Amino acid sequence: MKIIITGGAGFIGSHVVRLFVTKYPEYQILNLDALTYAGNLENLRDIENAPNYRLVKGDITDQAFVDQLFATEEPDAVIHLAAESHVDRSITDPLAFVKTNVLGTVHLLNAAKNLWKPKGYEGNVFYHVSTDEVYGSLEMGPEMFTEDTSYDPRSPYSASKASSDHFVRAWHHTYHMPVKLSNCSNNYGPNHFPEKLIPLAIHRIRTGQPVPVYGKGENVRDWLFVKDHATAIDAVFHKGQVGETYNIGGVNEWQNIELIHLLCDTLDEKTGKPQGTSRQLITFVTDRAGHDLRYAIDSSKIMNELGWKPSVTFEQGLSQTVDWYLENQGWLDNVTSGAYQDYYRTQYAAR
Ligand code: NAD
Ligand code: TDX
Predict the structure, then answer these.
(1) H or E element at residue 200
(2) Residue 26 domain-assigned?
(3) Closest Cα to residue 193, out of 37, 7, 311, 15?
(4) Which is the closest atom of ligand 1 to the Cα of 100?
């Protein structure tokens, strides 16, 4: 089987590519990635020479390129992760999110339909990896997002992902494309770009800079270790029902400020600093526009139907993550130079 994995040089995509390349040596894995600021081939150094792996550098916003690629490579399946993924960037540049997340997804759907439909879709799957943010925002309390929760996206990022989910389902209903979808909560782990909360905080603490906490730090996120998201994607790809959606999450809700306290204390302990040192870096800053209050995801469908469950507790996953960043400070130094500095200047100017 030949699988195109899009966005394979990014955070989650690199873990998915590694899992598929090593677990399924009989598959050919093509990593289709534009190598934007978020795509980093360092994330794949250990498997880049594997005989069943190949990188195709290209942009999914280019329909002609995508059509040509599908016509020449004739993939059997697509696992689609390529996206603009950062909510704050979507607030300052929404159009980039429409282009990659909406148009890019439709380009892939078109190319897959043109290749597969004449042969009756035998052995084909188009799998869209999506987010829990499409469901909107929850109040504090016990309520969780299920697969039946109505869509209510509230940021340009989540609106673009909701739109792409709808297009994927439309290709299933209209053209009988065999599709699968999953909507996952916040991921954390190695290779996470330091514009997102956890790697940003680790980077700022290690360099002794203020750690920005939006608003009062009371927003809640449900965190899942990235390697557990990769095994969930493996389960959905191989065992999920065509046309179905699976929610994926860690049943692991944290208020941002509590999470930052835990990170500060973990870093103090691991770097031999007196407890309380890193907490002094916490700085409350202007809130994110339209900041969703709480996400929490009910994963019982994937657990009960596909037998998936997370392999690590949050404490284990966070400890492994902090160790990885402390052991790979060169990775952080490389991605936080140059363009990263410009991004931070524009973020704070935009508030
Ligand atoms: P990321 O930003 O780390 O990586 C995105 C990758 O896509 C990069 O390698 C980038 O180069 C590539 N890419 C971007 N635009 C492209 C284009 N036009 N053509 C080809 N490649 C392009 O993202 P991530 O955090 O790894 O997220 C991956 C997917 O998972 C996204 O679809 C995201 O919506 C979804 N998701 C992420 C999370 C999370 O917590 N990070 C949670 C749920 C779902
Ligand atoms: O500097 C910060 N300070 C802060 O308080 C940053 C970057 C974030 N935050 C807050 C905002 C959120 O409440 O921390 C929380 C997490 O923020 P992000 O790491 O930006 O993640 P989030 O906005 O929740 O979205 C993430 O999870 C769902 C991913 O970026 C999405 O791609 C995914 O779909």
Answers:
(1) helix 197-206
(2) yes
(3) 37
(4) 18
Is residue 94 within a helix (H) or strand (E), and if so which, with residue range?
helix 94-97
Per-residue pLDDT at 348 = 67
8 Cα to the center of ligand 1, angstroms = 8
Q: Whose CA is nearest to atom 15 of ligand 1?
A: 83
What count of other Cβ atoms lies within 10 Å of the Cβ of residue 316?
12
Closest-approaching ligand to the CA atom of 260: 2
Predicted confidence at residue 158, as pLDDT, reads: 98
Task: Find, among 134, 146, 324, the residue nearest to 225 by Cα.
Answer: 324
Q: What's 295's domain CATH number?
A: 3.40.50.720
DSSP code at position 53: E
Q: How many domains does the chain have?
A: 1
132 tagged catalytic: yes
pLDDT of residue 108: 98
Instruction: Supply the pLDDT for residue 12.
Output: 99
253-255 vs 220-225, strand pairing mode: antiparallel
pTM: 0.98
Instruction: Please tell me the predicted confidence (pLDDT) of residue 350.
Output: 63
Does residue 78 lie in a domain region?
Answer: yes
| Residue ranges of the chain whose pLDDT lies below 70 | 348-351
User: What are the phi and psi torsion angles at 248 (to 5°)?
Assistant: -130, 130
Residue 263 near residue 201 (C-beta atoms within 8 A): yes
Over residues 19-40, the pLDDT tens digits come to 999 999 999 999 999 999 999 9
- Phi and psi at residue 83, to the nearest 5°: -170, 160
Structure tokens at 271: 């770097």
- 157 catalytic residue (yes or no): yes
